[in-house]
Amino acid sequence: MYLQHFGLNQLPFNLTPDTEFFCDLPTHREALNVLMIALQSGEGFIKITGPVDTGKTLLCRMLLNELPAPFITAYLPNPHLSAAGLHLAVAEELGIRYSSNAWQSRTLTQINDYLLMAAKLGNKVVLIIDEAQAMPLETLESLRLLTNLETEKQKLLQIVLFGQPELDELLQSKSIRQLRQRISFSYTLQPLNKRQIREYVLHRLRIAGNTHTDLLAPLSIHALHFYTQGIPRLINILTHKALLAAYGKGQSKIGWRHLQLAALDTDDTRDRKLPWGFRSIFLWLLLLSCSLFAYFSSYLAL
Predict the structure, then answer these.
(1) Domains in the chain, please, with CATH?
(2) Membrane-spanning residues where (predicted)?
(3) pLDDT tens, residue by residue, 203-214
(4) Where are the alpha helices (DSSP H) in 123-184?
(5) Residues whose CB falls within 8 Å of the CB of residue 297, separated by 6 or more in sequence, listed in order
(6) Rg of the chain, C-alpha, whole Å
């Protein structure tokens, strides 16, 4: 692979949500701050949405890592469950012993007893649900009923929903309007702009061991922004492939041509063509360099 060629000690653009590579960009930091403030203040429902592959799962992992005591967390990465299945999954995450053939009301009672005991001990229980847009309406309504578990002074269970924009559409359903009304804090993740893309890529390269800041040619950032539209997962895919292309040619920098080849090799970016304005800049620079080369060649020949 290209690790030694570029002075790296690990792959910088893996697709797994590795918190070591978390880049403290404004959109992700603001979302994390919203979560921490809302949870510290005891809010019942918090929602974080964003387009596909904008880093929601990584943000979810950061929250799990950064929540201090006395918070106790339960994490559901795949919430496509029935209402009964949701209660069983929550009980299992909290370490509650239950019978697989127990009535749903019995499981709810066990969860309630656990939450009451946790509150007496000064603990706060947080249920974190990733890919929440996959939840059936019946299960979402059952989720609302879980937040009915409370004392006179506090919610016994706080819930954080991470989801794609389809979650907002789902929440518009009249049958779960009571749940929608209970969401007191929400935040929408945005794609990265050109400056943030450069910061993001250099950050991951630096964590992976690279000490140079000139690995990306200036035009490559423009190409990366054009092809990926600022989506972190696509940035990872294209930059990894561009590094492979540069390594294969023995080159020490990623140029726009390497990213173009990477885009042509990727389903989600294959149909995006560089705009004529971008090509014109490249052609102008190419003509300028050729003219300067011809001028100095003729000057030296005199």
Answers:
(1) 1-18+192-271 (1.10.8), 26-188 (3.40.50.300)
(2) 281-301
(3) 999 999 988 767
(4) 137-146, 166-170, 177-182
(5) none
(6) 25
